Amino acid sequence: MRVVDLIRRKRDSGELTREEIEQLIAAYTGGDIPDYQMSAWLMAVVLRGMSRAEIAALTGAMLHSGRVLDFSDLPGRKVDKHSTGGVGDKTSLVIAPVVAAGGVKVPMISGRGLGHTGGTLDKLESIPGFNVNLSLANFRRVLETCGCALIGQTAEIAPADKKIYALRDVTGTVESPALICASIMSKKLAEGIDALVLDVKTGSGAFMKKVEDAASLAELLVETGNRMGKNVVALLTDMNQPLGRTAGNAMEAAEAIEALSGGGPADLRELCLELAGWMFYLGERVKTVDEGKKLSAELIASGHAREKFREIVRLQGGDVGVVDDPRRLPRARQTLGVTSPADGYVAGTQCEQLGVACVVLGGGREKKEDTIDPAVGLEFHKRIGDAVQRGEPLCTLHYNAGGRLDEARRLVETAYRIEPEEPKAIPPLVHRVIGA
Question: pTM (2 decimals)?
Fold first, then answer.
């Protein structure tokens, strides 16, 4: 196999065989193909796409590049949730302990930030001492003990995806339905789960900007999961504005703790209850999704979900003090406000720009070797449809290093669209459900 021939064929819209894809993935995982050649192939996929057969082959090759876990000896259904990524999306930190507190096991293997979107692992690691790099033996031990474990990909779990994921993040090759599907499903199918709830984002802050594109991706993900014998449902959710009030790792962890304590922004609470309701339903804990949402609300109100999060933090080596006092999380030393240039209403946001601004402040990676500052981020004061006066705060930047502060400020300033008239329609939080 000559890699350059596979690059050329995909560049010219040709189709690769299963054997060629398997050899390509195995060779790159083993270090026999350099990053620059894999980057070229990934870009060809972004530009030319892949057939359903190619996507299935790529998913299988990445899945079987490492171990596939088996938790069938543990009683009860195992259910996970995955988001395709957005700005301020901290739902995993809320719903994983909620669902585990309700008796459904949640083995969650998550990713880091990708492009302008935040990553669950980076948020968890903002909790001092929290270890997302558990061995598979310890992953199982934590899952058995408290019903939930949240880790990153180990060397044994889909190592091909771990290597390709990091490369896509810094080479402009994120926005491909084929690559997104193979990445998500290779990790999730390796977890030993019975069912999966997908949160597929759409809008200006999502990788899939148009609802129809997000729906196509959701159908692809559901079909791939069903083909592998898993019960999968996908919710198309809105990302035309950030979810909740914050973007930035420690700030989002604090907001998740607030939600687990019965507070937090209304949109975050609503989406968490919806996703957890579906997880309880697919986990056969309840007979309807509405019952699952009601159970989720009860587990939060009673404090059981918050205590489950405390247990997870303790078992994974984190500082449990943050559950009672989120001020123990890293905090930025300086702030800068961005105010409205005019009276009127927030008519829309370029949500991706807000995510990029967080990255520019140090809250994400632009190169594989970049180190994240967990303390930095954005605090949002206005949502679409809100009235605003000239000089009133729209967003506050929390930062430590000021070297690129002006760049981040400009991104935020130009992200908000202020109009004199109230917008006629505000996008729904959940557009539709696929695979129900």
Answer: 0.89
